[in-house]
Design goal:
This protein has 351 residues and is of the alpha+beta class. It is 48% helix and 13% strand. Strands 3-5-7-6 form a four-stranded antiparallel β-sheet. A two-stranded antiparallel ribbon has the order 1-2. Helix 3 packs antiparallel against helix 4 (100-126), helix 4 (100-126) runs parallel beside helix 12 (299-312) and helix 5 (128-145) runs parallel beside helix 13.
Length: 351
């Protein structure tokens, strides 16, 4: 096959596979075997059992977006990285025509950029079982901690009031005042979908709802107050007791309680890549036929094949990203609960 016909053959092949393409993805790394084995150890139990509970640091095994393999990274270093913006001083011979050496370097960057992305997609798919195990680990821990009893998914205000009134009555005290104050500010709106290689940091208000509980009981001896606080701390519902105050006609107790609500988190997704768009972002100008004719090494063909593989695997990639997105949310929920449980274990000064 002559050189001209060979070029036209590759051009026809490339145009036939011209794909649709995205903006990057969270690049999960292969899960370390030791970390995976550690993740399958028995989960911590609720504080007070023989197993360390949520007050103890727990090593979560949610796979996080990694860099590409060292081999590919080193190869990318040899071509000066993968800047997506054309050099300001790019040299051209005329309208739509680039200097061959400059074009070769840009196409080389395109090849390695596409290769890194398809390798990240492969790793993401391979990690699906690990992401599924991470979700199971969180659910197992939450059940052993009794987390959803202490911080339910609904407010359950009436149940809380009844439980507090029962504690007060057992001490022969009278509940003179009971009040709940919900926060006025609404939770921030979270993005529904996140495209590209972007991280997202959860705040506590994204994870749970908090409300203030204030009670006043009749005048009591200090020993009775100590028992009252102990009884409130022993309730199944988690209460953070912030202050105990003596009043002329009684005693005031200020507390904070929580409920989780529905799961709310952004879904990380990868969208298709478009070869022509990626070429333009790297400053590769001219028609596809012209660029292909000047690409004697075959960089453009390699990039096209990588993006074709990436696009064809998007269903599995986004299945993995869905699991990873929920894992990140449950990781934040677990972190909040452990911190809250540690804070609730403390006791404020009792007058």
């Amino acid at each position: 096959m002559c050189a001209h016909n060979r070029q036209m053959f590759w051009f026809a092949t490339l145009l036939a596979g011209c794909l649709i393409v995205v903006g990057g993805c969270n690049r999960p790394r292969k899960v370390d075997t030791a970390a995976r084995d550690k993740a399958q150890e028995p989960a911590p139990a609720h504080p007070g059992t023989d197993v360390d509970g949520p007050g103890t640091a727990v090593e979560d095994t949610v796979a996080t977006p990694p860099e590409v393999s060292e081999k590919v990274a080193s190869e990318a270093d040899q071509i000066g990285g993968t800047a997506l913006i054309p050099d300001a001083g790019a040299t051209v011979e005329g309208p739509g025509t680039m200097v061959p050496d400059d074009l070769t370097e840009r196409l080389k960057r395109l090849k390695f950029q596409a290769r890194r992305e398809v390798m990240a997609a492969r790793t993401t798919i391979e990690n699906i079982p690990s992401y599924a195990r991470s979700l199971e680990k969180f659910e197992r821990e939450f059940e052993q901690w009794g987390m959803y009893a202490e911080v339910p998914v609904e407010p359950r205000h009436d149940e809380l009031k009844s439980a507090i009134a029962e504690v007060v009555a057992k001490l022969d005290l009278e509940l003179l005042y009971y009040n709940i104050v919900e926060p006025e500010a609404k939770p921030r709106r979270l993005p529904d979908v996140i495209h590209g290689d972007k991280s997202f940091d959860f705040e506590d208000d994204d994870i749970r709802h908090a409300f203030q509980v204030t009670i006043r009981v009749n005048k009591a001896e200090r020993e009775q107050l100590v028992k009252l606080i102990a009884g409130l701390k022993d309730l199944e519902r988690m209460l953070l007791i912030r202050r105990v105050k003596a009043l002329p006609d009684g005693n005031l107790v200020n507390m904070e309680a929580y409920w989780f609500g529905e799961e709310r988190y952004p879904l990380h997704q990868v969208v298709p890549r478009n070869l022509k768009t990626e070429m333009e972002q790297l400053g590769v100008t001219g028609s596809m036929e012209e660029v292909l004719r000047q690409d004697s090494v075959g960089y453009l063909q390699n990039a096209a094949l990588s993006y074709r593989e990436l696009n064809s695997s998007l269903a599995k990639v986004n299945e993995a990203m869905g699991l990873l997105s929920r894992s990140k949310f449950l990781e934040a929920r677990s972190s909040f609960y452990r911190r809250a449980a540690e804070a609730a274990a403390g006791t404020p000064p009792i007058p």
